[in-house]
Design brief:
Blueprint (H helix, E strand, L loop, with lengths): L35 E9 L3 H9 L11 E6 L4 E7 L5 E12 L3 E6 L7 E9 L6 E9 L4 H10 L4 H18 L13
Antiparallel strand pairs: 1-7, 2-3, 3-4, 4-5, 5-6, 6-7
């Protein structure tokens, strides 16, 4: 089960942002194979409780996560995810919430036997300067086809490290302004 992330006793940085991080040390499931750990943090000018509640309703995630095609909530802890993959493919798995502390933390892991084993946590804590909430996303995943699959996903901008950065930026925009900015041209209707 996922545990709270503890800083390395030698360093004050979270394990998810350390060089050559260890998924198990970050409190996430880790396979015997080479898992990839992603850690991203953003400060959002909203209360932690509000951000937590928005994220906890999994049906909201496709609003700002561009690779998610759909999330079907099965019950309070289980959900089915369909995510865009490289080269117009899709990947699906079932996910289980393993820890849920209202206003603070949501942790999850994929069900046994999934094609893309993954686990993660999203933490919400008040910023030290009193200006909003520090949101930290930490994700461990085992890319399909190993290093080759990871390279292929990166080429098609479907690699989770790239997506995590973009998705947190869009989450910040949506929660602070109510919309997500885009470079797409505005359609003008006659």
């Amino acid at each position: 089960m996922a545990r709270r992330t503890r800083p390395d006793p030698i360093s004050d940085s979270p394990e998810s942002t350390a060089k050559d991080p260890n998924p198990a040390a970050a409190g996430l499931m880790a396979s015997e194979d080479e898992d990839t750990l992603i850690g991203r943090t953003v400060t959002i000018n909203r209360p932690a409780r509000e951000l937590y509640e928005f994220w906890r309703d999994l049906r909201n995630l496709p609003l700002f996560m561009e690779n998610i095609e759909s999330i079907t909530v099965i019950d309070a802890r289980r959900s089915h995810w369909k995510v865009k993959g490289p080269a117009d493919s899709s990947v699906e798995w079932d996910s289980l919430i393993t820890e849920d502390i209202p206003g603070e933390l949501i942790a999850w892991e994929s069900a046994e036997g999934t094609s893309v084993p993954n686990s993660g946590r999203i933490e919400f804590r008040a910023s030290d300067n009193g200006r909003g909430t520090v949101v930290t996303a930490t994700i461990a995943y085992d890319p399909p086809a190993g290093a080759l699959g990871k390279m292929f996903a990166k080429m098609f901008q479907r690699e989770p490290k790239i997506q995590a950065r973009r998705d947190l930026r869009r989450f910040k925009q949506l929660m602070e302004t109510g919309e997500i900015s885009t470079s797409a041209p505005v359609e003008v209707f006659p």
